[in-house]
């Protein structure tokens, strides 16, 4: 379609021009069945009914908007937390382009990850040559300190043996023998991005700590964030540990990588946990996991191979943060500083201020299992009442844990936990049993548009709003942010519902 260079329009305006409207009309008639507006409206209404909900939930062979990502996406996210590390994906270029853009669109940052660009010949003969050449080029061109290898479905279907291939690459002098190349098999036809995160974290830690076990401990505690996409969280955890004087290693800290300063110079590998610190993590006093379901295999590995005590602590909301701090105090013998007690008081005060607006409000939520547990627990503290809890990548263990949390609260009784369901299922749930607000990632904006139910953006990805990922959601400070996002969404909605002059504006109050 020709454009007048004197009149460049933003696409929101551009597609309203007559020539585009004509094009859409023709497309609808020629390729989309050309149904009348009345018929489209009739079917649209039907999709909101209980009858449609039953058909929708009987669906088996199709997933619509699954609310989960691919395993290698989680793997490259984990790798980016280590100093000078280049994520390398054995597989097709298209997959890796998707992971990179997914992360870049969320963080508004460049994300460096390479692929071995497997095509048809590799699909037939295997991807060994791609791996050897790819590692050699990546090592020489991008000068990393470590290359972390994961796979796409293609390499997994063929059955590429990463351990053997990396050995072959070293024997062929593509990379030095002592250069660290941890790897993880990350097939996306099972699990999700949190499985990939877990596999890669375990792969990197086992590679770096091999032969590093000493007879004495290093006196530190390790902290594994899990697939936590809030860069503010690692910073908040480090601030809390600093206040308590706890010597620690974050495994691994990608907050500088995913939120780097613009100082005029491009740095391909900003920040990250030092490789020698990660290698020494095997000698720590213990390891605290800030998520449970995205770190299952890593937890097992740390317990069994490193012989360390492990704990899963989710420092979200008042109770979660209390437990986190008290456990750290028990583990290290260090007192909880007054500064944190004051922060607790501030959060409790803020919750009291907002309580009346949130108490009794019904809500739905979807996302990763650890995120759901953390957010629901906090909202229960505020007296909000969950109705639909949907976790595509949740398993029966998650369902059980979530149901135990719900039944322990007077506000959790009417919730249903749905695992392995998608956002099209959630659409049916929201139309047939509406709620006051829902919590989810940017994909929820279509649910918001269709159902008109207010949406609170918490989770990953957040493509369509800026900077939310920079704020912490953990600790008492993080609780303030969560509270702010929820209560102000509800107040915005109240304003929208009370703003008709002379009709509803008797309640269009200045003070809420
Ligand atoms: S599902 Fe498999 S093939 Fe598809 S993008 Fe993910 S890794 Fe690639």
UniProtKB/TrEMBL annotation:
Q: Which GO terms describe its cellular component?
A: molybdenum-iron nitrogenase complex
Q: Which UniProt keywords apply?
A: ATP-binding, Iron, Iron-sulfur, Metal-binding, Nitrogen fixation, Nucleotide-binding, Oxidoreductase
- Tell me where on the tree of life, at the top rank, the source sits: Bacteria
User: NCBIfam families recorded for this chain?
Assistant: nifK
Q: Which family does it belong to?
A: Belongs to the NifD/NifK/NifE/NifN family.
Query: What is the annotated quaternary arrangement, including any partners?
Result: Tetramer of two alpha and two beta chains. Forms complex with the iron protein (nitrogenase component 2).
Name the record gives this protein: Nitrogenase molybdenum-iron protein beta chain
Gene responsible for this protein: nifK
């Amino acid at each position: 379609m020709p454009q007048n260079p004197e009149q460049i329009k933003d696409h929101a305006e551009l597609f309203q021009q007559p020539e585009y409207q004509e094009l859409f009309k023709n497309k609808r008639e020629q390729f989309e069945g050309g149904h009348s507006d009345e018929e489209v409206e009739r079917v649209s209404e039907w999709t909101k009914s209980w009858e449609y909900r039953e058909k929708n939930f009987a669906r088996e062979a199709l997933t619509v908007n699954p609310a989960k990502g691919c395993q290698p996406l989680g793997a490259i996210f984990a790798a980016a937390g280590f100093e000078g590390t280049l994520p390398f994906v054995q597989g097709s270029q298209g997959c890796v382009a998707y992971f990179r853009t997914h992360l870049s669109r969320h963080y508004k940052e460049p994300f460096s990850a390479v692929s071995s660009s497997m095509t048809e010949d590799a699909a037939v003969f295997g991807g060994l040559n791609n791996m050897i050449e790819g590692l050699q080029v990546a090592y020489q061109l991008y000068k990393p300190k470590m290359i972390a290898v994961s796979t796409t479905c293609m390499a997994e279907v063929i059955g590429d043996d990463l351990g053997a291939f990396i050995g072959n690459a070293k024997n062929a002098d593509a990379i030095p023998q002592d250069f660290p190349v941890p790897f993880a098999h990350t097939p996306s036809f099972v699990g999700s991005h949190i499985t990939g995160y877990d596999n890669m974290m375990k792969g990197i830690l086992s590679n770096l700590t091999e032969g590093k076990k000493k007879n004495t401990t290093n006196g530190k505690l390790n902290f594994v964030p899990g697939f936590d996409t809030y860069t503010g969280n690692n910073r908040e955890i480090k601030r809390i540990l600093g206040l308590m004087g706890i010597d620690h290693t974050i495994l691994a800290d990608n907050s500088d990588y995913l939120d780097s300063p613009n100082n005029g110079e491009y740095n391909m590998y900003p920040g990250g946990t030092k490789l020698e610190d990660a290698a020494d993590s095997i000698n720590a006093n213990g390891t605290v996991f800030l998520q449970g379901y995205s770190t299952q295999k890593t937890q097992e590995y740390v317990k069994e191979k490193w012989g360390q005590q492990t704990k899963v602590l989710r420092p979200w909301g008042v109770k979660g943060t209390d437990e986190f701090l008290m456990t750290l105090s028990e583990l290290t013998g260090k007192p909880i500083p007054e500064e944190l007690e004051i922060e607790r008081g501030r959060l409790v005060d803020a919750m009291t201020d907002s309580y009346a607006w949130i108490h009794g409000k019904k809500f739905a939520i979807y996302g990763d299992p650890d995120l759901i547990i953390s957010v629901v627990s906090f909202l229960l503290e505020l007296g909000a009442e969950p109705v639909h809890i949907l976790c595509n990548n949740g398993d029966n263990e998650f369902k059980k844990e979530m149901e135990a949390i719900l039944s322990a609260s007077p506000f959790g009784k009417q919730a249903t936990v749905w695992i392995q369901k998608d956002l099209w299922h959630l659409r049916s749930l929201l139309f047939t049993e509406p709620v006051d607000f829902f919590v989810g990632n940017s994909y929820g904006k279509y649910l918001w548009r269709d159902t008109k139910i207010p949406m609170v953006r918490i989770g990953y990805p957040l493509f369509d709003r800026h900077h939310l990922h920079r704020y912490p959601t953990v600790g008492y400070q993080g609780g303030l942010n969560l509270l702010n996002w929820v209560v102000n969404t509800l107040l915005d909605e109240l304003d929208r519902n009370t703003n008709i002059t002379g009709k509803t504006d008797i309640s269009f109050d200045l003070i809420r």
